[in-house]
Design a protein that fits this description.
The complex is a heterodimer of chains A (107) and B (118). By secondary structure, chain A is an all-beta fold. Chain A is built from no helices and ten strands. In chain A, the strands form two sheets. A six-stranded mixed sheet of chain A has the order 2-10-9-4-5-6, with no helix packed on it. The radius of gyration of chain A is 13 Å and the shape is globular. Chain B is mostly beta strands. In chain B, the strands form two sheets. In chain B, strands 2, 4, 5, 6, 9, 10 and 11 form a seven-stranded mixed sheet that branches. A four-stranded antiparallel sheet of chain B has the order 1-3-8-7, with no helix packed on it. Chain B is globular, with a radius of gyration of 13 Å. The termini of chain B are far apart. The mean pLDDT of chain B is 96. Classes of the chains: A mainly beta (107), B mainly beta (118). The interface between A and B is medium-sized, with 25 and 25 residues.
Chain lengths: 107, 118
């Protein structure tokens, strides 16, 4: 299985901050990397697919980059509704493994 | 608007089989992969597996010996069976659609909590 490692595991930030979350794959996954946002009690929601493609309806303050083994999710200016847990997922090989998650909290 | 809805027992006894169904509405069931993902309380997401409408499956090797997925295109449903459950299988179970092209999960059910307990 491909292991996905996110960092940090948790992060405190303020409204308006620029935030970056990283995800590293245990082997090259080309650009087969997706990012999801999950709020408490809710299903995850896709933000970014194929490393850098913004899902329809997702605000442009979210962006993704990377290829191979190293990827980033950036939120350019945090909004109150962005405080949530973020997961990366590789879709290069099955099983389509997830990272352990990054909890973004209000400072 | 595509909607997915999980259904099934919320309580399963140890050693028995967990059975869940996901009903798809508002869109086609064809030409997609249909996935199951689970999440124990307070923990991360675990991909269980997927099935396409031809019945072809991919399972997580960690669960493969206990998992069976099926699809009924006429009823717009797909199903998960997990045998020989233990308390470690207690989780919220989600069904989700895999876009196929790009392989990302674009529609999810709301999730259903399954507790394994006697």
């Amino acid at each position: 299985d491909i292991q996905m490692t996110q960092s940090p595991s948790s992060l405190s930030a303020s409204v308006g901050d620029r935030v970056t979350i990283t995800c590293r794959a245990s082997l090259s996954i080309d650009r087969h990397l997706n990012w999801y946002q999950q709020k408490p009690g809710k299903a995850p929601k896709v933000l970014i697919y194929a490393a850098s493609s913004l899902q329809s309806g997702v605000p442009s303050r979210f962006s993704g980059s990377g290829s191979g083994t190293d990827f980033t999710l950036t939120i350019s200016s945090l909004q109150p509704e962005d405080f949530a847990t973020y997961y990366c997922q590789q879709s290069y090989n099955t099983p389509h493994t997830f990272g352990q998650g990054t909890k973004l909290e209000i400072k | 608007q595509v909607q997915l809805q999980e259904s099934g027992p919320g309580l399963v006894k140890p050693s028995e089989t967990l059975s869940l169904t996901c009903t798809v509405s508002g869109g086609s069931i064809s030409s997609y992969y249909w996935n199951w993902i689970r999440q124990p309380a307070g923990k991360g997401l675990e991909w269980i597996g997927r099935i396409d409408t031809s019945g072809s499956t991919d399972y997580n090797p960690s669960l493969k010996s206990r998992v069976t997925m099926s699809v009924d295109t006429s009823r717009y449903q797909f199903s998960l069976r997990l045998s020989s459950v233990t308390a470690a299988d207690t989780a919220v179970y989600y069904c989700a659609r895999d876009r196929g092209s790009g392989n990302y999960l674009d529609y999810w059910g709301q999730g259903t909590l399954v507790t394994v307990s006697s």
